[in-house]
Amino acid sequence: MSFDAATLPYGVYSLPGDAPRVGVAVGDDVLDVARALGDETFATGSLNPFLAAGPDRWRLVRRRLTELVGAGEAGPYLRPLAEVTPHLPFTVADYVDFYASEHHASNLGRILRPNEPPLVPNWKHLPIGYHGRSGTVVPSGTPVVRPCGQRKPPDAAAPGFGPAERLDVEVELGFVVGTPSRLGEPVPTSAFADHVFGVVLVNDWSARDLQAWEQRPLGPFLAKSFATSISPWVVPLDALTAARVHGPVQDPEPLPYLRRSGDWGLDIAFELRLNGEVVSRPPYTAMYWTPDQMLAHLTVNGASLRTGDLYASGTVSGPEPRTWGSFVELTRAGAEPLVLADGSTRAFVQDGDEVVITATARGAGGGRIALGEVAGRVEPARR
């Protein structure tokens, strides 16, 4: 995927026989940042040292790279993206996944609790989330092995064990923390851009049958912890200035610590592809909770931020069926399987299927900038 020169996303890559190092994607090439800037901070296999340096440093480096590329002086430091191997761009400290789409939450409520209100009572008062497993956050292209676990169909007398039969995907946007915070000190919504460096695309793979059995009373566990895929290029917040929009009107008004102090709704358009076919186009503009509110809620109890923390939006879904960001919604939990162009059907993801999520954001001048892609192919369970 080609990246606009106004985007300049950061990642970690390697050439055959060489150690991983930090690069910036420009067009169809990758720029060796350490060589271009003469800065050994970037001659490492992780973005974490740069992320920890904070917003002033982020802006300075972006300005220098923009000048270098704009002056046509980047040539000696470029290699084709097709020749390099991308890696996980940063060492993930903690991983938190939110549930910020009203459409997604309402859809699941109607499917899973048909005789109850779609939203649980607390949903519009706080951004609901769960703590995930940082060690299973993997870069795009990593095969995803079908998980095994306990599952209990509603008509079964007892649970059984085996490969998940309802393997699902979730289209999400992830936020990468650079600047840490002190334990015991909440981070207000106004400090969002002081701590968050940029965004990645996320596929939070989910085993819906395992989840249904384990979720009550403490929430998702093995159904989510086996793999979370992210795109290999981190797009800085500074590249998304033109994509910023007002967040939705929130009723009831959130408590004071959750009140927005800036516009951090984002005009980002996703595409979800199954084996090359577009099955959904979720819009991020439809999200109810914005990322500054998620960060404020994550830390309001005094939980500290660490460099490399990743938190994700939860499934991005819009108001119409072909804007829903998961198969449990698109197929109504398998009751109405998707019919694909070749005549085959899918209730959930099958072994051998490849899922690719891409996204674009509104750029300066009304155009769109690419945010990359996150891909994963499903492999059979191992047991």
Molecular structure report:
This protein is an alpha+beta fold and 383 residues long. It has helices spanning 33-37, 48-52, 55-70, 102-112, 192-195, 208-214, 291-299, 327-330; strands at residues 10-14, 21-26, 29-32, 78-80, 85-87, 95-98, 129-131, 137-139, 144-145, 148-151, 160-163, 167-168, 171-177, 196-204, 206-207, 228-230, 235-236, 244-245, 265-266, 268-274, 277-280, 310-312, 338-339, 345-346, 354-362, 368-379. It has 8 helices and 26 strands. Strands 6, 7, 8, 13, 14, 16, 17 and 22 form an 8-stranded mixed beta sheet that branches. The longest helix has 16 residues, at 55-70.
Find the count of extended strands (DSSP E, 2+ residues). 26
What does the largest sheet look like?
A: 8 strands, mixed
Rounded to the nearest angstrom, the distance between the terminal CA atoms is: 36 Å
- Low-confidence segments: none
Quickly give the structural class: alpha+beta
> How much is the average pLDDT?
97
Q: For the CA atoms, what is the radius of gyration?
A: 21 Å
Shape verdict: globular
Content of β-strand? 25-35%
The percentage helix is: 10-25%
Number of helices: 8
Kindly list the characteristics that best describe this protein.
single chain; 383 residues; alpha+beta; eight-stranded mixed beta sheet
